[in-house]
Design brief:
The complex is a heterodimer. By secondary structure, chain A is mainly β. Chain A has strands at about 5, 10-15, 20-25, 30-40, 45-50, 55-60, 60-65, 70-75, 85-90, 100, 105-110. In chain A, strands 2, 4, 5, 9, 10 and 11 form a 6-stranded mixed β-sheet that branches. In chain A, strands 1-3-8-7-6 form a 5-stranded antiparallel β-sheet, with no helix packed on it. Chain B is an all-beta fold. Chain B has strands at about 5, 10-15, 20-25, 30-40, 40-50, 55, 65-70, 75-80, 90-95, 105, 110. In chain B, the strands form 2 sheets. In chain B, strands 2, 4, 5, 6, 9, 10 and 11 form a 7-stranded mixed β-sheet that branches. In chain B, strands 1-3-8-7 form a 4-stranded antiparallel β-sheet, with no helix packed on it. The relative contact order of chain B is 0.35. Classes of the chains: A mainly beta, B mainly beta.
């Protein structure tokens, strides 16, 4: 059973068109949920860590939120440079020290 | 500008050969991670270390993979013998602890023929 599921797999937005990416998780006893951005041919770049339901974090046009079952990455008025794959990962007490990554959402922002 | 370095950046080898990948974590970071990324499986955690001691290697095939930290400035991932299914991009990341941000290296693209 997948621990982390991201949707949609791919998203195309016009510049300025706000939207949200979803990360749902099935692990219990969450230690942390992580969002990363990955550009082609590069390693992931850290964006946020969320620890408990109700927590929110913001960085420029990005805002991450967390509930007991899922996290959303909201992108407000995106720009072409926001185009990348966005990865979500979880670490849970019940699974020991393992991290589980989703397969990502590929975002394309069209000028 | 502190960053994680990995060598080699690209490696092409034949099935059965030994492959060693190296990683230099950011100075002062005490946690080092090894990941593998493929189109089919996405990003998978293979192993990680804290203060050079292995904390978890449950994601790693034990029969052919081994990970070590000979010292605080070097982490190695070895595959012996390599197989075509090991073809992937291998990332090293370092951080101050497992719940803080992880800084990823540029990756080693491994192709096993």
């Amino acid at each position: 059973e997948d621990q982390v599921t991201q949707s949609p797999e791919a998203l195309r937005l016009q510049e300025g068109e706000s939207s949200s990416l979803n990360c749902s998780y099935t692990v219990s006893g969450l230690r942390g949920l992580f969002w990363y951005r990955q550009d082609p041919g590069k390693g992931p770049e850290f964006l946020f860590t969320l620890y408990s339901a109700g927590e929110e974090k913001e960085k420029e046009r990005l805002k991450a939120t967390l509930t007991k079952k899922e996290s959303f990455l909201h992108i407000t008025a995106p720009k072409p440079e926001d185009s990348a794959t966005y990865l979500c990962a979880v670490q849970a007490h019940i699974t020991g020290n393992q991290f589980y990554f989703g397969t990502g959402t590929s975002l394309t922002v069209i000028p | 500008d502190a960053r994680v370095t990995q060598t080699p950046r690209d490696k092409v080898t034949e099935m059965g050969q030994e492959v060693t990948m190296r990683c230099q974590p950011i100075l002062g970071h005490n946690t080092v991670f090894w990941y593998r990324q493929t189109m089919m499986q996405g990003l998978e955690l293979l192993a990680y270390f804290r203060n050079r001691a292995p904390l978890d290697d449950s994601g790693m095939p034990k029969d052919r993979f081994s990970a070590e930290m000979p010292d605080a400035t070097l982490a190695t991932l070895k595959i012996q013998p390599s197989e075509p299914r090991d073809s992937a991009v291998y990332f090293c990341a370092s951080g101050l602890n497992q719940l803080n941000e992880q800084f990823f290296g540029p990756g080693t693209r491994l192709t096993v023929l």
